[in-house]
Amino acid sequence: MDYEVLSIPATRQDGQVQKHNMAVVLLYFCCLGLIGFVFAIGCFVLFISGIVLDFLAFLGLLGIAFGSLIWGRVKRVEGPSVVRRVAGHFKILFRNNSFLF
């Protein structure tokens, strides 16, 4: 039995078309890689800013907690006159609109 190998003769133009197609594929994957890289950087920035905002919120909650503890201690030590005096001060600020600039 004889076997015959069938092949398509390659021309110079076929090689050029293959090179062009390969360049298009490489360009496509490079663009996808750049988009993925930018997306990864954006996610990292959002992650870091989220951590910073969480830390600031935690500090705010700590400030509220310790502020209320200190305010309660001042109120107990000084008596209700301090509370009325501070409340009156804020009432004057709001009445004159100087608190709102």
How many strands in all?
Answer: 0
Report the average pLDDT across residues.
75
Radius of gyration from the alpha-carbon trace, in angstroms: 36 Å
Encode the helix/strand succession as letters.
Answer: HH
Structural class determined from secondary elements: mainly alpha
Helix content: over 70%
Shape descriptor: rod-shaped
Structure at a glance:
The protein is mainly alpha-helical. The protein contains two helices and no strands.
Overview of this protein structure:
- The protein contains 2 helices and no strands.
- 83% of the residues lie in helices and 0% in strands.
- With 101 residues, the chain is an all-alpha fold.
- Helix 1 crosses helix 2.
- It has helices at 12-78, 80-96.
- The protein has one domain (15-96).
- The model has no long low-confidence stretch (mean pLDDT 75).
Write the layout of secondary structure elements.
Elements lengths: L11 H67 L1 H17 L5
List keywords for this structure.
about 100 residues, mainly alpha, 2 helices, about 0% strand, rod-shaped
